[in-house]
Amino acid sequence: MRNYKIAAIPADGIGTEVISAGVSVLECLQKKVGDVSFQIEHFDWGSDYYKKNGVMMPENGLEKLKAFDAIYFGAVGAPDVPDHITLWGLRLPICQGFDQYANVRPTKIMSGIQSPLRNAGPGDLDWVIVRENSEGEYSGHGGRAHRGLPEEVGTEVAIFTRAGVTRIMRYAFKLAQSRPRKLLTVVTKSNAQRHGMVMWDEIAAEVATEFPDVSWDKMLVDAMTVRMTLHPKSLDTIVATNLHADILSDLAGALAGSLGVAPTANIDPERRFPSMFEPIHGSAFDITGKGIANPVASFWTAAQMLDHLGEHDASALLMSAVEEVCAAGIKTPDVGGKATTRVVTEAVIAAIMKR
Ligand code: IPM
Ligand code: MG
């Protein structure tokens, strides 16, 4: 029996709804697969916890999480708590504290889901965006001076280190190499930003020599939005900075039909710490409690988690069940269906069990 300890942090908004859907699917996989078990412990950290305790998670939060094999995360963000508090209080400390420097965001058009792109269907858009997840524009460097005065200054400094860029570049080349097309696009803004971004380009060229079988090209981030929209088939694996990939991955999710299906994995490739898996969509307070949140992203990220744990068969089983359910038109309103979270979840469970 292979036993995995998983920390579930549903946190805010629809996070609770989609993580509970995901947990029932994991329990079903455990039944189906037989020789694998998930020991799932829930943590009530997030904005409600903050309102009671003044912090998003306890001081020893990271210490507690260290003991787990993976973290299954919902969403953070609440209408009555500033976003920078929810973010810097929970999600970023986990990503940065555990040095989860590779953020992996696969996107594809699933059958049964309509892309807003005319003539694009399954197979026309199948990408993985690799987002640098430990530094860049999210380094937290900067400050404010002359607060409240007319001469007030705010700085937000992006930090790019040779070590940080080299390791994400290597990860991206390796991932591209593992995919059938062996194709990588390196995104920067090295025409306007002439220091860190030029260093990205240089390091990309250096790392490329270690992967002679991977074809790669460079794109400026603004032109990249055009290529993603007009020539989605020309792309496969994509690597970009923390902020650029944040923006491009929202575009990718929208082009694939809905952010409700887009997953993300925050990975420590060296496995010194647990990695964290979450849907990309946020806490979505407009639909919280209505029972209509799309659970597909949380299922897909559970599949990423299973892959990371080495449970490739269970991961493939889950993804094929999810694809079958989407193709059958059992889907939530954000992707044009009428089903509730529960109906989709039960359909995925039934599809797993009948396999
Ligand atoms: C994401 C989100 C976050 C990010 C927000 C919630 C700060 O947009 O995971 O893409 O920018 O990292
Ligand atoms: Mg984002």
From TrEMBL:
Residues 5-348 form the Isopropylmalate dehydrogenase-like domain. Its EC number is 1.1.1.83. It catalyses: (R)-malate + NAD(+) = pyruvate + CO2 + NADH. The keyword Manganese applies. Its cofactor is Mg(2+); Mn(2+). Pfam families: Iso_dh. It is an enzyme of class 1 (oxidoreductase). Keywords: Lyase, Manganese, Metal-binding, NAD, Oxidoreductase. One of its GO terms (molecular function) is NAD binding. It comes from the Bacteria. This is D-malate dehydrogenase (decarboxylating). It comes from Buttiauxella noackiae ATCC 51607.
